[in-house]
Amino acid sequence: MAVLEQRLLYYVTVLAILLLHCSSFLSAQIPQNYSSTANISTTWINHPLPILNSTNLNTATPILIRGLGFACGFYCNWDGKVSSRDCVFGVLIYQNRFSLPDGYSLLFLQFPQLVWSTNRNNLVQPNATLQLTQDGDLVLANSDGTLVWSSNTAGKSVSGMKLTEMGNLVLFGRNNEIIWQSFDHPTDSLLLGQQLAPGQQLTLTASVSATNLSEGLLSLTISHDGLSAYTESNPPQQYFAYSFYDYPAEFRNGSFGGMDIPPASAAQFMRFGPDGHLKVYEWAGSNWLPVADLLATDFGDCGYPMVCGRYGVCSNGQCGCPETTNSQAAFFSQINFRQPNLGCSLVTPISCDHSQYHSLLELNNTYYFAFNSSSYAKKIKAEDCKNMCLSNCSCKAALFSIDPGEKTSKRKGSCLLLNEVFSMTNHENYMGLYYNTTLFVKVQNHYDKPSRHKIVILAYTLGAFFGVFFVIGSCLVIFRHRLKESNEIEGDFLDQVPGMPTRYSYENLKAATEDFSQKLGEGGFGSVYEGALNDGIKIAVKCLDGLGQVKDSFLVEVKTIGSIHHVNLVKLIGFCFEKSHRLLVYEYMANGSLDRWIFGGKQDHSLPWLTRKKIILDIAKGLAYLHEDCSQKIIHLDIKPQNILLDQHFNAKVSDFGLSKLIDKDQSRFVTTMRGTPGYLAPEWLNSEITEKVDVYSFGIVMLEILCGRKNLDWSKNEEDRHLLNVFKRKAEEEKLQDLVDKKNEDMLIHVEEAVEMMGIAAWCLQGNYTKRPSMSLVVKVLEGLVAAETNLDYDFTNSSVVRTFGDQRQEADDVAASLLLPSALSGPR
Ligand SMILES: *[C@@H]1O[C@H](CO)[C@@H](O)[C@H](O)[C@H]1NC(C)=O
Ligand SMILES: *[C@@H]1O[C@H](CO)[C@@H](O)[C@H](O)[C@H]1NC(C)=O
Ligand SMILES: *[C@@H]1O[C@H](CO)[C@@H](O)[C@H](O)[C@H]1NC(C)=O
Ligand SMILES: *[C@@H]1O[C@H](CO)[C@@H](O)[C@H](O)[C@H]1NC(C)=O
Ligand SMILES: *[C@@H]1O[C@H](CO)[C@@H](O)[C@H](O)[C@H]1NC(C)=O
Ligand SMILES: *[C@@H]1O[C@H](CO)[C@@H](O)[C@H](O)[C@H]1NC(C)=O
Ligand SMILES: *[C@@H]1O[C@H](CO)[C@@H](O)[C@H](O)[C@H]1NC(C)=O
Ligand SMILES: *[C@@H]1O[C@H](CO)[C@@H](O)[C@H](O)[C@H]1NC(C)=O
Ligand SMILES: *[C@@H]1O[C@H](CO)[C@@H](O)[C@H](O)[C@H]1NC(C)=O
Ligand SMILES: *[C@@H]1O[C@H](CO)[C@@H](O)[C@H](O)[C@H]1NC(C)=O
C-alpha cells in the first residue's frame, strides 16, 4: 500500500507541476512562435516546463525552436526525486508538439531526444541562466551564479546565435560566418548531414545510463579513416573498429562512412548509447525506433564491454559471475543479485601488498572483447602469459589466445594483459567461432587468516566458546540463507495452495511460446506473447520489462492478483520468477484488446450495438468487483481500451489490474498513462485524495470512445475536434449528440437514440467533481436498467473544473510543488 501511496504522490506532484504551469501561462501567455535565432546581449532563465515521453517525464525550457525538428534550450531529467531537478543546456530533436486541447497555451514537446548538451557532467538547477553576452560569449551559469560552461568566443565578433535546419547550434559573425558550432563538440549523438571537417576527429562519449546523463565509460572516436569504440580505461580497451576506406565520414541519408543505413523515411539521428551500441533512430510516427545498429559484434549482445558489468560473464545474453571450480572458495559475488547485469565484485579486493597470495582463475572458452592487437605479446606460452600477469600488480587479467594452426600441446599464442576487467563472454554455445581464447582472471586469496595449526590450538582452549559460537553462527547462516531464499520459499508456498497461480520455469514458458516467437502486443509493462501449455490450453505470456522496476514482493502480489477471480477480469493462470525473469501467464483472449475493435476504422472490424453495450456492461462489472467486492479494494489506475481484452464471444475482461502494485515507483507506467492522452486522467489527481473514482472517470472516457468509435485524443483531426471531450461538450450544448455516434456499423444507425442515452451515463462518470460521479456498482445498475441515471450534469469536463479545483487547492498544490522550485514567471529573451 505504501508503494501505491508513493505512486499517487508522484502522480499528484507531476500533475501539480502541470497545472501550476497551466495557470501561470494562462496569464503569462507563452510565446507560441519561438524564433530560431537570437541576438547578442540576451539572457534566458531555466524554468522547466513538463514534456511528455513514454519512459521519462522530463522537462524543457525551449530557447530557440527550428520548425518541427529541433529546439535548443534547457532540458531536465526527472529522476523520480521530488526535490531535484537536474538540467542541461542542449539541443533536442523532436517531431511532435502540442498544446493542451482545452485552450491552455502550454507548449509540449513530445518525445524529444537530447542530441547535444554543454554540461552533462555538471548539471544546473532551475533558475540557471544562459547568456549570449555583449562580447559574443555564450555562457551557462548555475542558479547560484557559478560559471558552468562557456563557448569561449568572447571578442571573436559574434553577432548572434542560430539553430540550423540540421540541428546545429551556431554562433555566427557579421557576415553570417560560423565562429563556433555545436557540431564541432558532439556529446553522444550525430545528426543527419553532420560531417567531419578536413582533418577533424570527433569523439562521442556515451552517458552512464538512460537516466544519468554524465559521461560514462565508453567512447567512440570518428575520424576520416574510420571509427573505433573503446572503454575509457587506462589504457583504453578497444571493442570495435571499422575503416571507412574511401567513404566520406558523413552521416548521410542511407549511409555512414560506407556502412549501410536504411534510407530515412522520417527524421533520423545516431546515438552512441550507454550499452556501447551505435544506433540510428528514426521517427516512427509516435516514437523513435532504432533502425540500424552500426557496431555489431560477433557475439551479439554479449560482445559489449558493459553488458554484464565489471567481472560479469555473458552467456547467451544472461549475466553471471565467473564460476569457480574448487567449491570451497567463491572469489566473486554479484553486486545485486536481482540485477545480474550490474556485474560482480571480488570478494577480496586485489592488494598489491599481498601479491604472494594472488592466483589466476582459468576461464576456458571465455572470450574478452579487447582485441587491440598492437598491445598483444606474441608467440608466447600460456605459462609465460600467466607469469607476466602475476608479476605485474596492475594486471588484473590476461587474455590468452592460441594462434590458429598452432599445436595445442605447445599452447603458444598471443597474450594481452588487462588493467581492468569488464564483461567477459562465454562462447561455449557459439558454434563455428575461431576464437581460441582463455581468460586468466587474477584473484586475491585470503592472506590474513590464521594457519590451520593455530585454529586447532584455539579450538582446544576455547572449545566451549567455540561450540556456542558455532551454534549461533549456524543459526545466523541458516537465517541469512532463508532470507536470501525467501522468494523461493514463498514460491513453494504458493505452489501448494490450490486455486493459486501455477509457477512455471522459464524454460517451460520459452517452450510454450516457441521461444517467444508470436508477439501479441506490447504494453506499458512489457511484451505479451502467445503460447500453449502442454494440454493445449492457449495462454498469453507477459514478460515484465525493467528488472529494476519489478518489486521484491512480486510473489506476494502475484498471490493477491491470482486469488481474484471474476468473469470480467482476465485470469492469471501462472507466473515465472527465476533469475532475472518475471513473467505472468494469463488466459488467452482470442479477440485481443478493445482498441483494435473500436478505433480500427474498418467496417468488418466494427462492432454492432448489442456487443458494444455488453462490453460496456462487462467492464463496469469487472471494475465494480475490483472496487467493491474484493477483500482488498483495488484501484486499477490505468483503464483504457488497450487494457480491456475480448474473448472469442466478445466477453470483455479487464486486464493488468493490480499490476501497479508489482512495479516499483514506476515512472514508465505513469507516462504511459499520460502519453498522448492527458484527458484520460481525472482532474482530482491534483487533490491528494485519490479514490476509485479515478477509474470511474477513465471508464467514462472508454465508454465514450466505444460509443463514438474514436480515440479521446485524435491527432488526425483538426484542432477543435482533436479532443473528444471538447466535441462532446459542444455537441451536448447544441443538442446534437447523435452526430457523435459511431456509424461505421449499420446496426448502429437504428440504435442512435440508445447510444445518446448512454452518453449521458458517460457524462455522469466524467463529472469534474469526483463526488458527483457514480460508483461502479451504481453504473452497473443503471446499465442494467434497474436505476435511472443522474441528469443534472455539468458538461464542462476538463478546463473549468480543473482550474477551479486547482484554485481551491492552491495552497496544497503549492506545498506539494514547493520543493520543485517552480517558476513563477515565464522565461524568454530579455
Ligand atoms: C505564429 O505564426 C503563425 C504563422 O507562422 C501565425 O499564423 C500565428 O498567428 C502566430 N502566432 C502568434 C501568437 O504570433
Ligand atoms: C536582432 O537584431 C536585429 C537588428 O540588429 C533585428 O532586426 C532582429 O529583430 C533582432 N532579433 C531578435 C530575435 O531580437
Ligand atoms: C524518453 O526519454 C528518455 C531519456 O531522455 C529516452 O531514453 C527514451 O528513449 C525516451 N523515450 C521515447 C519513447 O522517446
Ligand atoms: C528562482 O527565481 C524565482 C523568482 O526570481 C524565485 O522565486 C525562486 O525561489 C528561484 N528558485 C531558485 C531555485 O533559486
Ligand atoms: C551519474 O554517474 C556519475 C558517474 O558514474 C556519478 O558520479 C553520479 O553520481 C551519477 N549521478 C546520479 C544522479 O546517479
Ligand atoms: C591500441 O591501443 C592503443 C592505446 O592503448 C592505441 O594507441 C592504438 O591506436 C590501438 N591500436 C589499434 C590498432 O587500435
Ligand atoms: C532519403 O532517401 C530516400 C531515397 O533513397 C528518400 O525517399 C528520402 O526522402 C530521403 N530522406 C531524407 C530525409 O532526405
Ligand atoms: C581448461 O582447459 C584446459 C585444457 O583444455 C584444462 O587442462 C583445464 O582443466 C580447463 N580448466 C577448467 C577450469 O575447466
Ligand atoms: C604491467 O602491465 C601493464 C598493462 O596491464 C603494462 O602497461 C605495464 O607496462 C606492465 N608493467 C611491467 C613492468 O611489465
Ligand atoms: C582451438 O583449440 C582446440 C583445442 O583446444 C583445437 O582443437 C582447435 O584446432 C583450435 N582451433 C584453432 C582454429 O586453432
Describe the structure.
With 830 residues, the protein is α+β, with helices and mostly antiparallel strands. A six-stranded mixed beta sheet has the order 38-42-43-41-40-39, with helices on both faces. Strands 3-4-5-6-9 form a five-stranded antiparallel beta sheet. β24 and β25 form a beta hairpin. It has six domains: 1-184, Bulb-type lectin domain (Agglutinin, subunit A, Orthogonal Prism), CATH 2.90.10; 186-296, Agglutinin, subunit A, CATH 2.90.10; 300-444, no CATH class; 452-492; 503-587, Phosphorylase Kinase, domain 1 (2-Layer Sandwich); 595-821, Transferase(Phosphotransferase), domain 1. It has 16 helices and 45 strands. Residues 1-32, 50-57, 102-106, 449-496, 663-679 and 799-830 have low confidence and may be disordered. One 2-acetamido-2-deoxy-beta-D-glucopyranose binds at residues 35, 37-39. Residues 125-127, 143, 821, 824 line the site of one 2-acetamido-2-deoxy-beta-D-glucopyranose.
* Helix/strand/pairing category: alpha+beta
Bound molecules: 2-acetamido-2-deoxy-beta-D-glucopyranose
Spans where pLDDT lies below 50 across 5 or more residues = 1-32, 50-57, 102-106, 449-496, 663-679, 799-830
Distance between the termini: 48 Å
Q: What name goes with the CATH superfamily of the largest domain?
A: Transferase(Phosphotransferase) domain 1
Rg, Å, rounded? 31 Å
Strand content: 25-35%
Overall 3D shape: globular
The number of distinct structural domains comes to 6
Spatial order of the strands forming the largest sheet: 38-42-43-41-40-39
CATH architecture of the largest domain: Orthogonal Bundle
**Total DSSP E strands:** 45
In DSSP terms, counting alpha (H) and pi (I) runs of 4 or more, how many helices? 16
Provide the residue-averaged pLDDT: 75
Q: Sheet bearing the most strands, described?
A: 6 strands, mixed
Domain Protein kinase: 514-787
Subcellular location: Membrane
Signal peptide: 1-28
Protein name: Receptor-like serine/threonine-protein kinase
